[in-house]
Amino acid sequence: MTDTATTERIGIAVAAGMLKGVYGHGVLSAFEERGLRAHVYGTASSSGLSGGLAAVGRARRTGVGYWLKAAAAAAEKGMSSVVLDSIKEYSPTLRDGLFRPEAPEFLLATSKVTNPAAAETTQGPGAKALGKQLLRNVFAGDRSWVDENLSTVVFSSRTGSGHEERLLTPDNYNAVSYASTRMLHAWDVPAEIDGEAYVDASYTCSCPAREVAAKDVTVLIAIGCDPFPLFRDLYASEEIVEGSVLHRARVLVIKPDEDLKDLGVDYAAATAEGLVKAYELGLDAGHRFMDLHAELLRSAVSAPLDTPADAQEGVA
Question: In Å, what is the CA distance from 18 to each residue of 3, 24, 39, 43, 243?
Fold first, then answer.
């Protein structure tokens, strides 16, 4: 990059990945240590928490502690309870910080259920069976149910309006955060926003890179949690490619070199040791990225946000 870096607008899109999202949290923590905060953050499902904390300058302070607590609770309480508890714990900090005028724009992707019959299924006792079928469909390359019954809706802290983007507010933040995470096969509690049915963002938009790029950013950093190609959704509808251009944004991709499963971190279960290692891998990757792209700091959002000092956070 040249001296034009002083005019760059930086966007960061963080992919979902359930417990594997600890890697992305590590990357964001390294960015925070180096002073890089983007103009726009795009998140989906499990990355909503880590991306939100990065947007308010609290990613490193929270660290791997959140993920250790979530993994320990998942086996005992179920994923709905884990997510609802985490929203209760962290939402005071995030609702205070994300909606300040000086805060970066924050995007949280969801999948809206557009068919009334499908909405009834997703909200009722048939939800888990449908969720398992949708996972089987991933391996079969069949996205017909998703195409017929779901649409991506992104909630923005700044400019949400229209069919595909809506306004995220302190009042609807909790509902949107939960809805974004609701994988049908493992979440017992239905998700609604303003009385309408929603499910996990990952079915339609697990990495909102395109939505972030549309915010007039010139550099888009996309963070994945697997060594495989980074795709827009579970069904691999669109690959997010290093060096490509979305809208007018140059795309830079950060992802692990190895499957975190080999460290003991899978999507729905993880060991404490594995989580710490995966978080540290993310930290290292984030610092190496900054060593290569230190000039991005010229354009970064620099003013720290003063969030409540008494917020309960899982410091590592």
Answer: 38, 11, 25, 12, 26
Rg (CA), the chain: 18
| Distant-in-sequence, close-in-space partners of 309: CB < 8 Å, separation ≥ 6 | none
SS3 at position 111: strand
Query: 304 pLDDT exceeds 90?
Result: no
Residue 75: the pLDDT is 82
More confident residue, 308 or 28: 28
First-residue to last-residue Cα distance in the chain: 35
Smallest CA-to-CA distance from 240 within 264, 260, 212, 278 is with 212
**Distant-in-sequence contacts of 121-127, Cβ < 8 A, 24+ apart:** 122/184, 122/190, 122/197, 122/199, 123/190, 123/192, 123/197, 124/190, 127/184, 127/190
* Residue 129, SS3 per DSSP: helix
Strands 150-156 and 40-44: unpaired
Cα 262 to chain center, whole Å? 22
Q: What residue type is assigned to position 21 of the chain?
A: G
Task: Give the lowest-confidence range in 52-56, 249-253, 299-303.
Answer: 299-303
* CB of 225 closer than 8 Å to CB of 260: yes
**Any idea which architecture 11-298 has in CATH?**
3-Layer(aba) Sandwich (3.40)
